[in-house]
Design a protein that fits this description.
The structure holds two protein chains of two kinds. Chain A contains 17 helices and nine strands. By secondary structure, chain A is of the alpha/beta class. In chain A, helix 2 runs antiparallel to helix 13 and helix 14 runs antiparallel to helix 15. Chain A starts with 6 loop residues before the first helix and ends with a helix. About 43% of the residues of chain A have low confidence. In chain B, helix 1 runs antiparallel to helix 5 and helix 8 packs antiparallel against helix 9. Helix content of chain B is 68%, strand content 0%. The chains are: A alpha/beta, B mainly alpha. Chains A and B meet through helix 1 and helix 16 of A and helix 14 and helix 15 of B.
């Protein structure tokens, strides 16, 4: 039989057991609770859910919309020549498939004359057989696509090729005021403008034309006038300088003097966001133009150029070029910038090469965006579509951001035991903020600067969303379910808790025995 | 102190100086061994910190230096007498002198009133056990600053044994300042300090306040030296939160290499708590023999601290040598000795295999640290059991017989 414990020993044993428990309870438990609490920062789930609706309502884009180059074109009756829009559309699709662009580009033809109650498409197809097309009064009018149809040669192939050239082809510069010469050049017997650079959309053709006008205006000592918003002024001034420097020192310099400058005038201005175009008159003399300009509230920018007799006069210039006929042609049609453009005209045999060089230099200067086609075919530079591309990329980024944030929302909702660090909340807030900024910019129409900003905001939104989902701390904790935590704690606590509980039990039992 | 003891002192000095002279690169070789030094006691990092301090840059920026700022003052002072290179005469003499002082303190403890009634080993034996212990010699030659911390701790025990309590508190505060785990010894030290007058609330409060004041004073030295309290994070923070994840003879590094970040705070606190939780119970249980309590806590912190070294085992064994009366009741001495010996032989080999040859991995080295810990655990539990048995039986002429079942 074991000897009984002395009182002192019992008291000592109790002190030992209770001191273990004191550290365990007052230090261990609070630390255990503090270090194992899952911190979940609230994520704005409702804000994420509304993003999709905002995209749909604000931009008219649903989730299923393909953000490819989807362009609606209104076709006027005079373009149809008895051909249905369906036939033209089928022919166009054939062309697109041939070129491998059908997966990215889509053109919808809408009957412009019978579009009652529908929103008119941005672009309108207008076919002409003469040069008597009135000048555009508004930007929307300027965005008309004019297809020149040789007399009695209207066909679905011509119209379809015209549309194709307008949106898919390369640069094209024309001046409709010399359609007579073009008409002769475009005759099937004399040739087609094949080495000309095709502007696929008027917006880009206009943009480029501004650049070229300013640049070329300085070469002849003339001044170019451009009344644009301050952002555009800066942008085009920079472009103009670059273009001029290239032209000056490039190969085209040899041919500058041989180019005939026409004093025909066409210009646009925008004041206070208005899209009213100034009326343009043909064959305006410099004096008359000067008086006209003085009466209008313009914000001109001028390039200081070498003086000439007409340096005081602000004029725009067009340069004409008409290359000889080549058999490598797609169609008998071409697109015309309605208010004017740039045409290099001349009958020198060197001019085609000069034009090619000019085009290359412009290509390099303005850094056209490479657009990889969805079908995997070789990317092609489509400078005219850069704003469309920006819009497409913006929309894709916005959708990507929505998808990613929605995935995060589902993750956070379904895994209640997953920690959500405060960094994730900050990233989500940043993504939503950038998202809204992108949508605001995307809503602006025909605003390259805003579109570029929108693209940047959208890319930032997508990036923030990805960072939020793949946050390191959150991802690590996602794979530690509650039962794993128990599995980790038990080996730690088990060996310690057994003697502690046994000791405490003994103390309690002894205390109870004493009570009676 | 008899002549034999002095002879041991001289012999150890000759041995260490000879080793340094004959093998000038030995300090560097040993200094690179993770078993002998850690980032918390490395002389190389001390030199780095000293250099940064001398050129006016805070040594605690950059995560290189983790030791107490008072070491910077000390070695800057030593620099006035000569070079502070690891193998310089100044440092050689200083470290040899420190070890001899520690051995002297141990001899003094063995002759104190606290152990007067027990059968003691001869002074020269106690001194030899410390001075010629290979682990202690290796630690000394590697110029680990643990030599200084251990000296302060042993000195504190010695002064406490001779009722020089104020000095004891100062040395304990100094030892705690350089090695925070020494602070765990405060409760058993309280027993020592109040053994003459009794543990009244007033006396306990007095010593507590004095200890806190001394610690605050040493902390403030660090503050004035570095200009901020940032060094606390680099010194105590690194020790307590295991910021420098490097292999050593401890159990921490492997866990923290493998675990999820989510559990890191929990494990850090649990591991530190594991060292702390034994202090009070052991102090209560061994309140009649506070020296044994101190030794036991030193042993427990040796295996459970974040950056242990083999020198800690050397100190623990040296403290055990003061309690000759428990030796007859120790049952697993041979087993523990062999386990420790095997682990100490294999540890550097497995580390070499892992790091330099690449034919091993971390599991090799960690397995040996586990074996080392098992050996230490055997020693601690066996000696504790022996001490409790003697307490139960009585130290002389046991009146009670304990039958092991």
């Amino acid at each position: 039989m074991l000897p009984s414990e002395s009182t002192e020993a019992i008291v000592l044993r109790r002190k030992v057991v209770l001191s273990f428990w004191a550290v365990f309870v007052f230090l261990g438990l609070p630390l255990w609770f503090h270090t194992t609490t899952i911190h979940r920062t609230p994520v704005p789930l409702s804000a994420i859910e509304t993003l999709d609706n905002e995209l749909k309502d604000g931009l008219g884009l649903s989730r299923d919309d393909d953000p490819g180059l989807h362009i609606a074109v209104g076709v006027k009756k005079n373009c149809l020549y008895g051909i249905t829009t369906r036939e033209i559309s089928d022919e166009l699709q054939r062309l697109l498939r041939t070129e491998g662009t059908s997966s990215v580009f889509s053109l919808d033809l809408v009957d412009a004359d019978e579009c009652s109650g529908c929103s008119m498409p941005k672009y309108t197809l207008n076919c002409i057989a003469s040069d008597r097309t009135p000048l555009p009064k508004t930007i929307s009018e300027a965005l008309e696509i004019t297809v020149y149809i040789p007399s009695n040669h209207g066909s679905k192939e011509i119209i379809a090729n015209g549309l194709y050239d307008a949106f898919v082809g390369d640069f094209l510069f024309f001046n409709k005021h010399d359609l007579g010469s073009i008409d002769r050049a475009m005759s099937p017997t004399t040739g087609i403008l094949s080495t000309m650079y095709r502007g696929a959309t008027y917006a880009d053709a206009i943009h480029l034309s501004f650049t070229l006008l300013i640049a070329l205006g300085s070469s002849g000592g003339e001044r170019a006038i451009e009344a644009l918003s301050p952002e555009f002024q800066t942008e085009w001034r920079v472009h103009a300088e670059k273009v001029w420097n290239t032209l000056k020192f490039g190969e085209l310099n040899r041919y500058v003097s041989s180019i005939t400058f026409d004093t025909d005038v066409g210009f646009q201005y925008m004041t206070d966001g208005s899209d009213e175009w100034a009326r343009v008159e043909q064959d305006v003399s410099p004096d008359k133009l000067s008086s006209l300009l003085d009466t209008w509230d313009l914000q001109p920018i001028t390039l200081l150029t070498t003086s000439s007799n007409s340096s005081a006069v602000k004029v725009l210039q067009f340069v004409y070029f008409l290359p000889p006929y080549s058999t490598n042609t797609k169609s008998l049609s071409f697109t015309v910038a309605n208010w004017g453009g740039v045409v290099m005209a001349g009958d020198s045999p060197d001019l085609p090469a000069a034009m090619r060089t000019f085009g290359r230099q412009i290509d390099k200067l303005l850094s056209p965006v490479s657009f990889s086609l969805a079908n995997g075919s070789k990317s092609r530079k489509i400078l005219p579509h850069r704003h469309e591309f920006a819009r497409i990329a913006t929309i894709m980024n916005l959708r990507g951001a929505i998808e990613t944030l929605s995935a995060l929302s589902r993750l956070v909702t379904s895994l209640q035991e997953m920690a959500v660090p405060s960094t994730v909340r900050d990233l989500v807030d940043s993504a939503i903020k950038e998202w809204h900024s992108a949508v605001v910019n995307l809503r602006s129409d025909f605003d390259q600067v805003a579109e570029n900003q929108g693209l940047r905001h959208a890319a930032a939104a997508a990036q923030f969303a990805r960072q939020a989902v793949f946050d390191k701390d959150m991802m690590l904790n996602m794979f530690v379910p509650f039962e794993h935590k128990i599995a980790v704690y038990l080996p730690l606590l088990g060996p310690v808790i057994v003697p502690l509980v046994a000791g405490l039990r003994r103390v309690v039992v002894e205390s109870r025995k004493k009570e009676p | 102190m008899d002549s034999k003891t002095w002879a041991v002192f001289v012999a150890s000095a000759v041995l260490k100086l000879s080793l340094n002279f004959l093998f000038p690169s030995l300090h560097s070789i040993l200094g690179q061994h993770v078993e002998v030094t850690t980032s918390m006691t490395s002389f190389k990092q001390l030199k780095e910190g000293l250099h940064l301090y001398e050129i006016g840059i805070s040594p605690y920026d950059g995560g290189v230096y983790h030791q107490a700022p008072i070491f910077l003052l000390l070695f800057k002072f030593l620099g006035k007498f000569g070079s502070t290179a690891p193998n310089s005469p100044t440092i050689n003499v200083f470290y040899v002198f420190t070890d001899i002082i520690t051995a002297y303190f141990l001899c003094a403890i063995s002759k104190s009133q606290s152990l007067a009634k027990t059968n003691q080993l001869a002074d020269w034996v106690i001194a030899s056990i410390y001075l010629f212990n290979p682990l202690v010699v290796a630690t000394n030659i590697s110029r680990s600053t643990a030599v200084l911390s251990n000296a302060a701790m042993i000195g504190s025990i010695a002064y406490a044994c001779y009722n020089r309590n104020i000095l004891s508190v100062m040395f304990l505060a100094l030892a705690s300042h350089t090695n925070i785990y020494t602070a765990y010894l405060f409760p058993p030290f309280l027993l020592l300090w109040t053994s003459a007058t009794g543990a009244t609330m007033a006396s306990v409060t007095k010593y507590l306040i004095f200890y806190i004041a001394m610690s605050a004073g040493l902390t403030s030295i660090g503050y004035f030296m570095t200009g901020s309290l940032q060094y606390l994070s680099a010194t105590y923070g690194s020790l307590l939160f295991f910021k420098d994840l490097a292999p050593n003879m401890g159990l921490w590094w492997y866990f923290f290499m493998e675990m999820f970040d989510f559990f890191r705070p929990l494990f850090t606190y649990i591991f530190q708590l594991y060292s702390l939780i034994y202090v009070l119970p052991i102090t209560f249980r061994l309140h009649n023999c506070p020296l044994v309590a101190i030794t036991c806590i030193v042993g427990i912190t040796t295996i459970s601290k974040s950056y242990p070294e083999v020198g800690d085992l050397g100190v623990y064994i040296s403290l055990l040598s003061l309690f000759k009366f428990i030796f007859p009741n120790v049952r697993y001495a041979l087993l523990a000795a062999l386990v420790i010996l095997h682990s100490l032989v294999l540890a550097p080999n497995f580390y070499h295999l892992w790091i330099y040859l690449g034919s091993g991995n971390a599991n090799f080295f960690y397995a040996i640290t586990l074996v080392y810990t098992i050996g230490m655990t055997i020693i601690i539990t066996d000696t504790l059991r022996a001490a409790l048995l003697i307490e139960f039986q009585g130290t002389d002429n046991p009146s009670k017989t304990v039958i092991q079942i």
